[in-house]
Amino acid sequence: MSFIKICGLTTEASVKKAIELKVDSIGFVFSPSPRQLDPMRARELFELIPQGIKKVAVFKSAKEKSVEKVLRFTQPDCIQADFDSFEGVEFNSDIITLPVYRSTSSPIKTDYSLILFEGSMSGVGELANWQEAKHVAKSHKTILAGGLSPGNVIEAIRYVSPWGVDVSSGVESIKGEKDLTKMEQFVINARKAFESI
């Protein structure tokens, strides 16, 4: 079993490539970032994605004003944001919440069934603390993110044994623009590694 998410897609070509690669989830960024999408553009890209691939709306905080607008224009399966920002926020019951924990976060004590473990900053290629992630993955269903690339994803999966992996800047040649060849190599390598654990 492997779970692969590619995050920060902004073009029809990258979305179609992710679909061709049969990834499990595609993330669209709505917070300030080189990969930030307007909700109207996101809706066009969402319409390309078949059922079975989870569409994730990515925010720094679940309390951002743009969340409501994004939900109005798109229909994400999941909302991803820093774990502490979900406090006091309620979404439609069919929307999955994906809390982000960082290497700098306090110890993880949560009722969430699935978490994303990240470096201290998202989308900048900063490696998460794999030793800490390995510890977390023993007690939580964990998606490992933070600095992953085609070149290190095999080692990361074999060391951490996460439930899934998430990549963004690691499959780019130009900041904010996905490299389709790197996307393919990442998926091939991740699947190979998941088969070995």
What does this structure look like?
This protein has 197 residues and is α/β, with parallel strands linked by helices. The protein has six helices and ten strands, in the order βαβαβαβββαβαβββα. The strands form two sheets. An eight-stranded parallel beta barrel has the order 1-2-3-4-5-6-7-8. Helix 5 runs parallel beside helix 6. The longest helix has 16 residues.
Which helices and strands, and how do they pair?
Blueprint: E1 4-7, H1 12-20, E2 25-29, H2 39-46, E3 54-58, H3 66-73, E4 78-82, E5 96-102, E6 114-118, H4 130-137, E7 141-144, H5 153-160, E8 164-167, E9 172-174, E10 177-178, H6 180-195
Parallel strand pairs: 1-2, 1-8, 2-3, 3-4, 4-5, 5-6, 6-7, 7-8
Antiparallel strand pairs: 9-10
Main sheet? 8 strands, parallel, barrel
Helical amount:
25-40%
Q: What number of structural domains do the residues give?
A: 1
What is the CATH homologous superfamily assignment? Aldolase class I
* Chain oligomer state: single chain
Strand order, main sheet: write it out: 1-2-3-4-5-6-7-8
Fold-level CATH name: TIM Barrel
